[in-house]
Structure formats: C-alpha cells, structure tokens
C-alpha cells in the first residue's frame, strides 16, 4: 500500500483553522480532518512503549525500530480508508510533537505545518462570546473546575491564557517550535489576511506545500468537517461562515476597562500579533 502524503494544521484556537480545512477540502485531491485524535493516540503509545517490560528488555536499536514501525503504521493506517493520497491532519498541538512527525514521515524535510494565527485579543474575545452563549443554558467545563474565578470576564480571560488552557498552551507551542528550529517547516496563515485576501493566502499555502494550485470558491465554502462541540464544552466551537469575508475586531466591544486595564491584558496587548515582531 502506498503511503499517504500527510500535512498538518496547527496554531491558535479560534484562528480560522476550521475555515482553512473546509477551504482546502474543496480540492478533490485533498482529504481534510476535523480536530484529529491520532496525535493523542500516537503520544499515548509512544509514552507507554518503554514501560512495557518486554519492550524494554529487547535489544535497544531493534526496540526503537519496532516502535517507529508501529507508530508509522498507526499514522498511515489512520488514513488508509481514504481515497485521496494527500491528507491534511488538524490538531493544534502538532507543533509540540514535530520531532515525532519527522521520525514518522521520513525526515524533517517532509514535515509541513500550516499554522493559523489571529490577534490574541480577538481570540480571547471569541472565547468570551462562546462562554456567554454556552453558559446561558449549560455549564462550561472551566466553570465547573473553577466556579469562583469563572464568574468574571477578567477571571475567565486569565484562565484562557493559562499555560494549561488552549490559548496559553497553543501560544507556547508555536513559540517553542520556532525556538527548536521548526520555523522553516511552518507556514503562517494570518486570520485577517485569510478573510480579506483569501486567494492570495491560499496561493501561498499551495506554494509552501509544493502542491498544484486550485481555484477555490470563497463565496460558498461548504462545511465538510463536523464535530460534536459538546465534547469540548462550548456550543458552535467549530461552525464556519460559508462566505469568506473580513471580520471586524471584536475585542473592543467585548471587554471594558475592568479587563483592558489589567496587567495581564497589557501583556497580551504587547504580544497580540506576536508573529509580526
């Protein structure tokens, strides 16, 4: 069986990755995923492999080769039922495991990661709106885990940027991947540019991937990736607009001085578009 060509999508949450996947999905040569679980499964096997006495007792080089074979088989097997030869897997934490991706794809030169980014202030405003929408009739997991801090917009904002939460963790993953030398393997997709100049942005995507350009229809983007967002605790977390068009900044009308005058916000303000620095 011929191995699939696999590319990755990572980046900040609420930064257009679902929109990007559904645009890419218009290309009949591509198979695109919703948020993918294969990365979690790979890391679980990788992390538990040497806890097995029989594996640990094997000759070391042979054990490493078998482990690599199994993990490679898992990644390729995840897409073995797919007709297309080019598969694009979305998980915002691929950047944390770029070295593993390189091992499974035959070398660092084969790793290409599309990284969606958005003004951090609007990422946080988007999460705040999702919280307000969901909490009207449901309990958001953040609220269940820390109900006191979650009662205020300032508390929620501080929770969203925590290193263990999606925004903080993704931010750290991006910056650390660059520190580890993965910058040339990453292609930045600015949400504002994607929604204002989509044809230009997509042309850059194809050039980075080394694939033949495709004429996308940005006025009618059908959603082909679906997720039950109740699994993540927010309503409509992965619903896209069918027309690609510019979006106004939401943070100025979302937060007042209670948030924007805080020391934590001033730090976010400084790094709001960190990839342009």
The top-level CATH class is Alpha Beta
* SS element count, helices: 14
Our measurement of the CA-to-CA distance between the termini, rounded to an integer number of angstroms, reads 45 Å
Tell me the domain tally. Answer: 1
Compute the average pLDDT. Answer: 95
Estimate what percentage of residues fall within beta strands.
5-15%
In CATH terms, what is the fold-level topology? Rossmann fold
Helix content: 40-55%
Choose one word for the global shape.
Answer: globular
Q: Give the number of DSSP strands.
A: 5
Secondary-structure element sequence?
EHEHHHEHEHHHHEHHHHH
Based on CA atoms alone, the radius of gyration comes out at: 20 Å
CATH homologous superfamily classification: P-loop containing nucleotide triphosphate hydrolases
The CATH architecture comes to 3-Layer(aba) Sandwich
Strand order of the largest sheet: 2-3-1-4-5
Structural class label: alpha/beta
Topology:
Blueprint: E1 5-11, H1 17-24, E2 30-35, H2 38-49, H3 53-57, H4 60-78, E3 86-90, H5 98-105, E4 113-117, H6 120-135, H7 141-145, H8 153-160, H9 166-179, E5 186-190, H10 191-196, H11 198-209, H12 251-254, H13 257-260, H14 263-270
Parallel strand pairs: 1-3, 1-4, 2-3, 4-5
3D architecture notes:
With 277 residues, the chain is α/β, with parallel strands linked by helices. The chain has a single domain (5-276), classed as P-loop containing nucleotide triphosphate hydrolases (Rossmann fold). It is built from 14 helices and five strands. The chain has a five-stranded parallel β-sheet with strand order 2-3-1-4-5, with helices on both faces. Helix 2 (38-49) runs antiparallel to helix 4 (60-78). The longest helix is centred in the first third of the chain and has 19 residues, at 60-78. The mean pLDDT is 95.
